[in-house]
Design brief:
It is built from 15 helices and eight strands. The protein has a four-stranded mixed sheet. Strands 1-2 form a two-stranded antiparallel ribbon. A two-stranded antiparallel sheet has the order 7-8. By secondary structure, the protein is of the alpha+beta class. The protein has three domains: 18-89, Arc Repressor Mutant, subunit A; 95-190, Beta Polymerase, domain 2 (2-Layer Sandwich), CATH 3.30.460; 202-277, no CATH class. It is elongated and about 75 Å long.
Length: 291
């Protein structure tokens, strides 16, 4: 099998790829431990590729994984002395987009926002001197005082100055504007400032070999057995939902006993070995009942 080499990222060439750096930044700075599926979606990368990078980082001891059912929650390995300086390195290099998104997402009146200039060029792999600042274009008509308030303290966190420019929606779409035209000809990094809809409304899933069925993203188990989920904090709940969703897409439909076992593992009432023992026992009982 041919080995495909990836080029080192121009922003910080000590990493094997930009994906590895962005993935590690996400895990090391997350307040809610993500799963591989979360990271693949947020980084817009194939899940098998993300899983390989996660495996390398787990083997290197830079992150840890806590398995709940079929989902694994990923966190920083805080007992590793390299974690804190590595986190800081990633924040000042790859951090601007993530932190800008977090701070600007709730500012009213912003239609779109882009990082441009030398930082955007390095982000896209264009080699050159390290960027000294972060240039941000804000499209729309937000209150500039609200923007300044949202960004307060961010320059200190990034170790870089943030230079803001503003353009109305009309100006951004005006092909005759020379400034906008020059920006569009250079690398841009769009900030994702629209919160995704929470996965609680019914949606339609199709599983190969199964009838298309209306189910909630939460597979309606929280509505059927809310007293079970009341025992969980938000991180535990997400892990259980992720595990159930992964299993459902493989054709498994959980019953109350399955959900109880998964929740017991998530909240630490049983360990992984006991969860597997219960799951195997339940599978044998179902097999016997089907005969």
């Amino acid at each position: 099998m041919r080995h495909v080499r990836t080029s080192a990222p121009a922003l910080v060439p000590i990493f094997r790829s930009a994906l590895q750096a962005r993935l590690l930044l996400r895990v090391l700075t997350s307040t809610q431990p993500p799963t591989a599926a979360d990271l693949a979606r947020e980084l817009d990368a194939p899940e098998p590729t993300v899983s390989r990078e996660i495996r390398r980082l787990l083997e290197a001891g830079l992150i840890t994984g806590r398995r709940i059912g079929r989902a694994t929650l990923l966190s920083a390995a805080e007992d590793n002395p390299a974690t804190a300086p590595l986190r800081q390195l990633l924040v000042v290099t790859y951090g601007p987009t993530q932190l800008l998104e977090q701070t600007l997402v709730d500012v009213a009146g912003i239609v779109a926002a882009y990082v441009h200039g030398s930082w955007a060029a390095r982000y896209h792999g264009e080699h050159g001197r390290p960027p000294g600042d972060v240039d941000v274009l804000i499209v729309g008509s937000p209150d500039r005082g609200d923007v300044d308030a949202a960004l307060d303290g961010l320059e200190r966190q990034l170790g870089r100055e943030i230079h803001l420019t503003y353009a109305s929606t009309e100006r951004w779409h005006d092909p005759t504007d020379p400034y906008i035209a020059s920006l569009r000809q250079r690398p841009l990094v769009e900030l994702r400032l629209h919160r995704p809809d929470p996965p609680r409304e019914p949606c339609r899933h199709t599983v190969p070999g199964r009838k298309e069925t209306d189910v909630a993203m939460r597979l309606d188990v929280e509505d059927r057995w809310p007293e079970l989920f009341a025992q969980l904090d938000e991180t535990q709940r997400r892990a259980v939902v992720q595990a159930l969703a992964s299993a459902w897409h493989e054709g498994w439909e959980p019953n109350r006993e399955d959900v109880v076992n998964l929740i017991d593992e998530a909240r630490g009432a049983i360990d992984a070995a006991e969860y597997r023992r219960r799951a195997h026992a339940a599978a044998y009982r179902r097999s016997d009942a089907a005969r």
